[in-house]
Amino acid sequence: MILAAEEYNPVLPHVAEIIIGLIAFLLLFWVLRKFVVPRFEKLYEERAAKIEGGIEKAEKAQAEAEQALEQYKAQLAEARTEAAKIRDDARLEAEQIKEELRVEAQEEARRIVTQGEAQLQAQRSQIVAELRAELGRNSIELASRIVGEALEDEARRRGTVDRFLAELDASGNGAAGARN
Amino acid sequence: MGALVLAAGDVFTPPTAEAFNLPPIFGWVTKPMLLIVLSVVIILAFFLLASRKLSVVPGKRQFLVESAYDFGRNNIAREQIGAADFMRFVPLILALFSFVLVNNLFGIVPILQFPTMSHIGFPLALSVLVVYPVYHYAGIRKHGLGKYLKNQLVPPGAPKLVYLLLTPIEFFTKFVMNPITLAIRVFAAMFAGHLLIMLFGISAEYLLLHGDGVIKVVSAFSFAGALAMTFIEALIMCIQAFIFALLSANYIGAALAEDH
């Protein structure tokens, strides 16, 4: 085939070379198309997906973080108003309790004062009565000693003493009234 | 290869196109045929092994492979075809680019040392039997035959009379010349480059073996020339592979475009 030509002409193609060249090329093309190109394209798709997925994920995380921040801020504000309200309530309540205690204490004081006065009054009456009896007896004894005679006459005696006491009473009352 | 051409003996025979006429290695199998098969094995091994365990966060090695893949996918296919339709054509553009690139680079790999694309049959197979039908088919499928032909042959915005000239030129370009120029571009670059390297190499060898006295020193320059050409060829091989894939994508993009 090649040797048959008397003189070699490089511009004239050999049919065998065209055929072999074509078959070899088509084989190469087929394998590249069937295996190599899909592998690379799959890789590129994966890479693109990964990058896009990463960006999306980051955006989502950021949105979530922002939302959480908003939520915290809202909660914080709520807690603050709540605390202020509780403080106000407490102050109000304390004020009320103080007022109540004050009123109660005043009442108690008044009661104690009244009671003390009443007791004092009673003791004074008692003492006055005791003193009156004591004074009567002492006066009589003193008088009988001084006079030297026993006042046998009951009627007389009672009359004298009563008179004396009435006088004493009047003078005592007069003194008490002046003191008051 | 040098020895093959140098068989004539003392007289210097520059390499000719005959140097590309390689005898079969066994049966009817020639060196370029084996190289073509080898290139497919290399490319597939590279991409299949590298893409076996791809992770979302690439390591150093994966980054390298991804760069190679992305070059075909984004820099060539997406740029030329447009973001809407390019995905369908990524395997094709990737295959074209890697196929032409590896086969070109065989030209400077020791032992292999033969750019497969310097045999015009291979680039022709790609351009006429693969790229050409693909872009016409893609265009017809998208626009329908009538609208596709109108898009391609009657670009809007020209005065009526100009179409008399423009339409035949457009037809000639898109339906006849595109696939041929696409193949010839890479073929010619590889053919000429390989011939140049051979010329420098063979002349250096000849000067060293058969030169008299001081002339032997000149062979060093010839060696240096061969070395420099090898570097330039490496660049051209990559550029040609890139152009081949780029133009293929460009044709597809033009066929899919709404208007010219």
Automatic annotation (TrEMBL), chain A:
SUPFAM superfamilies attached to this UniProt entry: F1F0 ATP synthase subunit B, membrane domain
Record's keyword terms, sorted: ATP synthesis, Cell membrane, CF(0), Coiled coil, Hydrogen ion transport, Ion transport, Membrane, Transmembrane, Transmembrane helix, Transport
Residue ranges crossing the lipid bilayer per the database entry: 12-32
A Pfam match: ATP-synt_B
Coiled coil: 48-111
Domain of life from the UniProt record: Bacteria
An example Gene Ontology molecular-function term: proton-transporting ATPase activity, rotational mechanism
Membrane topology note: Single-pass membrane protein
CDD domains: ATP-synt_Fo_b
Compartments where found: Cell membrane
Subunit organization: F-type ATPases have 2 components, F(1) - the catalytic core - and F(0) - the membrane proton channel. F(1) has five subunits: alpha(3), beta(3), gamma(1), delta(1), epsilon(1). F(0) has three main subunits: a(1), b(2) and c(10-14). The alpha and beta chains form an alternating ring which encloses part of the gamma chain. F(1) is attached to F(0) by a central stalk formed by the gamma and epsilon chains, while a peripheral stalk is formed by the delta and b chains.
Record-given protein name: ATP synthase subunit b
Name of the gene encoding the protein in the UniProt record: atpF
TrEMBL record, chain B:
UniProt cross-references to SUPFAM superfamilies, sorted A to Z: F1F0 ATP synthase subunit A
Membrane topology: Multi-pass membrane protein
Keywords on record: ATP synthesis, Cell membrane, CF(0), Hydrogen ion transport, Ion transport, Membrane, Transmembrane, Transmembrane helix, Transport
Organism domain of life: Bacteria
GO MF, any single term: proton-transporting ATP synthase activity, rotational mechanism
Membrane-spanning ranges: 29-51, 89-114, 120-140, 186-209, 221-247
InterPro entries: ATP_synth_F0_asu, ATP_synth_F0_asu_bact/mt, F0_ATP_A_sf
Cellular compartment(s): Cell membrane; Membrane
One GO CC annotation: proton-transporting ATP synthase complex
PANTHER family the UniProt entry points to: ATP SYNTHASE SUBUNIT A
Family: Belongs to the ATPase A chain family.
HAMAP family membership: ATP_synth_a_bact (MF_01393)
Job of this protein: Key component of the proton channel; it plays a direct role in the translocation of protons across the membrane.
Name by which UniProt lists this protein: ATP synthase subunit a
Taxon lineage: Bacteria, Bacillati, Actinomycetota, Actinomycetes, Pseudonocardiales
Gene name per UniProt: atpB
